[in-house]
Amino acid sequence: MMRLQLGSSRRQRFSARNQRVRPQLESLEDRRLLYATLGANWAHPIKITYSFVPDGTMIGGAPSALYQTLNAKFSTETWQREFDAAAATWQAVANINMVRVSDAGGTLDIYGNQQGDPRFGDIRICAIPLTFGTMGAAFSPPPINGGTLAGDVVINSIMDWSIHSHWNLRTVAIHEFGHALGMSHAAINNAVMFSYYTVIKQNLHADDIAGIRSIYQARQPDGWNSNGQSNAFSHLAKSLDSRLTPQSQIQVQWLNFHNSPQAQWFWVTIPPANNGQLVAQAQATGFSLLSPKLEIFDASMNFRGEATTSKFGDTVTATIPGVSQGQGFFIKVSGGGATITGVFGLQINFNTTPLTPLTPAYPAVPWQPSQGGGLASLRTGDGDLDNHVELVRIGDIAAWGDTLKMPGGGHAPEYLAAVDQGARRLDALATTSILASAANDLTASPALESVSPTVSPKRADPVSPSPRTSAPFRSWRGWAFDADRKRSAIGSTRLVGSLGVL
User: Fold this and answer.
1) Rounded to an integer, what is the distance from CA 243 to the centroid of its chain?
2) In this structure, what CATH number is given to the domain that contains residue 303?
3) Using alpha carbons only, how large is the chain's radius of gyration in Å?
4) Across the strands, what pairs with 320?
5) Helix, strand, coil percent content, the chain, rounded in steps of 5
6) Are both 396 and 307 inside the same structural domain?
7) 3-state class of 269 per DSSP?
8) 323 plus 174 within the same structural domain
9) Whether residue 89 sits in one domain with residue 76
10) How many CA atoms lie within 13 A of 4 on its CB side?
């Protein structure tokens, strides 16, 4: 916007020639895209799975307490839905599909497939006590980290987690899923991938969207809606009659809603071999987090029935009785109550034989060694010290990843109280003082690493930091030193997590 101001010294002069204006330009908001990516991604983004680690599963030598921590405040269905919503947030804008699967346990970083291990998700979610001020951590995806550890997420079990208020669980879940998918920290405060927790963020910023699409591209349409094809309206409905099997059933896989709102219309004709009813089933289960909705109309567009769901990755079934040979029906599939983008399958049955769930092909990637974590790819700008992967230590596990911290280290009363009560087996008051001073030392520079970024640091021995004199307190990956560069009371034992310099 431009502002016109009259010079005050000339306000008495009214001639048109002497009326002078001085245009001024207002500054527009910063529109730079400062996302950073890790140069890593999942080999088969068409199906990336995640799971919740059972309590007691060993995480770097400590038992996971995810269920114990969150069930103390919410129902299991409630908190798991927050993670589902977080995963669906990324699925909605990128060419990926997220699928929740069961977790049979097994130590984090156990040997197995890098992607597609049948025992648990590609991304495993767990909770143990983490370093003061750290809300969560995520290990980078392949090829930075190899094996089953790649992409795994750890949240802090000491946090006083909430839903729809401060210390928001979904905000942190979206952030950590971003890391698990290949995003690094952003330089824009309003972005979900900003390196510190500031406010509740349950929607992606344009910067986040640009970043994830730089890795996986935007969602792509399926064959029914590409190359000039479309079935988005009833008059464009695609006939499925040619797909009828000898069992009087129809099956279509890998349908995809790539934007919102979107619908797909199909046409079916009741075959000679039928049992007097039409059964239509839209299945997102095993395909994506889509919440499908089915609607059925007769040839005159009279509504005959529907089925919908508010659950992520669900399956819905609609049954229309009293049908006969030669009748035609429109079948409309769209997004339901939870999320409206994602891949799904459609089945139609005119027989008495029940439909069996579709089993989408799931490519597995066998175990591969870690290739190490280099610097993140910063799209615009330089000098952001958070735009790199760091060495995250959790007990006896050390691997490349990123952490989400509270501003200034986080001084939530409940967190300080937990530390003071010895919840992390640290030296209470002395530890709190040391950690708080580390959080407030804004002059500290990142610790120098002597671990080669081309070598996996898994279970690496700790390396002492180089001497420095520019700041009163120094922290390195998992070890703390006092002002005299001697190990503090907490330096005698390895910390759980990574003490990053703020």
Assistant:
1) 36
2) 2.60.120
3) 27
4) 278
5) 15, 25, 55
6) no
7) strand
8) no
9) yes
10) 3
Residues 258 and 139 in one domain: no
Query: Which residues span the domain enclosing 238?
Result: 223-340
Specify the range with the lowest mean pLDDT, choosing from 77-91, 102-116, 252-266, 453-467. 453-467
8 A C-beta contact, residue 295 and residue 319: no
pTM (2 d.p.): 0.76
Instruction: Tell me whether residue 95 is in a domain.
Output: yes
Omega before residue 321 within 30° of 0, cis: no
d(CA 122, CA 113): 9
Sign of the Cα torsion 339, 341, 345, 350 reads positive
In whole angstroms, what is the distance from residue 175 CA to residue 125 CA?
Answer: 13
Mean pLDDT over each residue of the chain, to the nearest integer: 78
**pLDDT recorded at residue 259:** 86
In sequence order, the 6+-apart residues with CB closer than 8 A to the CB of 306 are: 293, 294, 295, 296, 318
Residues 213-263 have pLDDT tens digits of: 999 999 999 999 999 999 999 999 999 999 999 999 999 999 999 987 899
User: Residues 205, 243: one domain?
Assistant: no
Number of domains in the chain: 2
Has residue 68 been placed in a domain? yes
| Averaged pLDDT, 468-487 | 33
**Is the pLDDT assigned to residue 165 strictly greater than 50?**
yes
Report residue 150 as tokens. 């790649």
CA angle 44, 50, 55 (to 5 degrees): 150
d(CA 479, CA 492): 8
For the chain, percent of residues with pLDDT exceeding 90:
62
Region for 304 from its dihedrals, namely left if φ exceeds 0, alpha if ψ lies in -120 to 50, beta otherwise: alpha
The pLDDT tens digits for 98-150 are 999 999 999 999 999 999 999 999 999 999 999 878 999 999 999 999 999 99
Dihedral sign, Cα of residue 254, residue 91, residue 148, residue 74: negative
Least confident range of 79-83, 231-235, 319-323, 378-382: 378-382
Strands 123-128, 48-52: pairing kind? parallel
Cα-Cα-Cα-Cα dihedral of 404, 55, 391, 365, to 10°? -110
Residue in this structure with the two tokens 């919503």, named with its chain if needed: 85
Strand partners, 281: 317, 347
Cβ-based burial of 297 (10 A; exposed 0-12, middle 13-18, buried ≥19): buried
Detail the DSSP E strand segments found in 30-183: 36-37, 48-52, 58-59, 62-63, 98-100, 123-128, 134-139, 153-156
- Residue 130 CB partners (closer than 8 Å, separation 6+): 136, 137, 154, 155, 156, 157, 158, 394, 403, 496, 497
Q: Which two tokens stand for residue 245?
A: 């099997």
C-alpha–C-alpha distance, residues 324 and 318, integer Å = 17
Residue 464: how many CB atoms within 10 A of its CB? Answer: 11
